[in-house]
Specification:
Oligomer: single chain
Strand order of the largest sheet: 2-8-7-6-5-3-4
Largest sheet: 7 strands, mixed
Helix content: 40-55%
Distance between the termini: 48 Å
Structural class: alpha/beta
Radius of gyration: 22 Å
Length: 384
């Protein structure tokens, strides 16, 4: 049988009609304002060479893990790397997953139990939503970064709770499509007073916030008051994989019940060695400080060009300019790209209709000249 079933063809047709059909881009050689490689670690020759050196020192010449971690794949690099991550992030234990997606679906599909209730920020990442859908607990969204709305939702649903039921509150320390952050201190205090379990995804905070880019939760000194943290290595760390940080009991539970951990081949030694090397580089390099300076400079320039009113306020590496309509935002993005700058349009349905935006990802390696030029181009094309 050739082609797709008619129902699938129609879905593709409808998406194309709405100018929302996704395709895989190629490398254009443009100035990077779109990748998650905030510190330039993904292309670091030093990290590449040091990783190779580490593998040779450990006499590790295996290309793969050979199996799941519960069978044959739990090689020594896993033990070393998890111990390192727990120490660096001030956690009792660390458990590595193959990706941030695997970590989130593994956690949220297995940890909350029947009768438990989960409250999640309405802008939470798709991987968390997928994990919630796979789980057996009821979940409800609350307004973005709105603790008052969270309280109201909990009060309304409190009658459904029994004595042994848990309440989980889920947020991100930096939101991937807005670049903003919740009031984590207030949220921690709220959850602590009510004995709720707080879960924080730090995917876009690692490498950006905290001393040497160690993350926003640790910058605020809240690491011992959060039930679980999810850190991913595919953003600022420039490598692959993710970690869930929490108690030793949580780690043991996930090893026993998290299906995305149990039923998959482990990461190869090279991936774990790269994580170790990237963390060492994070502590020793000045890239995190350069990124902080570029974020400050970007905010200064959008204010000078009077564009700040159409940007979502952000002190992270992610800055979003709202340009409503898929066609409109795609047109402005294309005009900027034609000048050699890689700025991506984020269209519906990835974001809500009417909230389409240009997403600027800042990096330690972006020059002040590049930042100035791309904002000048935006000022021209966004107003035409």
């Amino acid at each position: 049988m050739e082609g797709l079933p008619k129902k699938l063809q129609k879905k593709l047709f409808d998406r194309a009609q709405n100018n929302a059909l996704r395709t895989l881009p190629g490398s254009k050689g443009w100035v990077d304002f779109s990748s998650n490689d905030y510190l330039g670690f993904a292309s670091s020759k030093d990290i590449f060479n040091e990783t190779h050196k580490l593998l040779e020192e450990k006499k590790t010449f295996r290309n793969g893990a050979t199996g799941s971690r519960l069978l044959s794949g739990n090689h020594n690099f896993y033990i070393e790397t998890e111990q390192m991550l727990a120490k660096v992030h001030h956690a009792d234990a660390a458990l590595i997953f193959n990706s941030g997606y695997d970590a989130n679906i593994g956690f949220f599909s297995s940890v909350p139990q029947r009768g438990d209730i989960i409250f999640y920020d309405e802008l939470i990442h798709a991987s968390i939503r997928d994990g919630l859908q796979m789980g057996i607990a009821k979940s409800y969204k609350f307004k973005h970064n709105d603790i008052d709305d969270l309280q109201e939702k909990i009060t309304t649903l409190s009658a459904k709770l029994e004595n042994d039921n848990e309440v989980y509150v889920v947020t991100e320390s930096v939101f991937s499509m807005d670049g903003d952050s919740p009031d984590l201190k207030k949220l921690v205090s709220f959850c602590k007073n009510k004995n709720y379990q707080l879960v924080v995804d730090e995917a876009h905070a690692l490498g950006v916030f905290g001393k040497n880019g160690i993350g926003l939760v640790q910058e605020l000194g809240l690491e011992h008051q959060v039930f679980a943290r999810i850190n991913t290595f595919g953003k600022a760390m420039g490598c692959h994989g993710a970690v869930i940080l929490g108690s030793k009991d949580l780690k043991s539970y996930l090893i026993n019940f998290s299906r995305s951990f149990i039923y998959t081949t482990g990461l190869p030694p090279h991936s774990l060695a790269t994580i170790q090397t990237a963390y060492k580089e994070l502590q020793d390099s000045v890239e995190a400080q350069k990124l902080v300076e570029n974020i400050s400079f970007f905010n200064k320039k959008i204010k000078e060009t009077e564009l700040d009113s159409i940007f979502i306020k952000s002190n992270s590496a992610i800055h979003c300019c709202i340009i409503s309509g898929n066609e409109n935002v795609e047109k402005v993005a294309r005009q900027i790209q034609e000048k050699g700058f890689d700025v991506k349009p984020i269209k519906s349905p990835t974001v809500a209709k009417g909230k389409e935006r240009l997403r600027f990802c800042l990096h330690s390696f972006n020059s002040k000249k590049e930042i100035t030029k791309v904002i000048e181009l935006l000022a021209i094309f966004a107003k035409t």
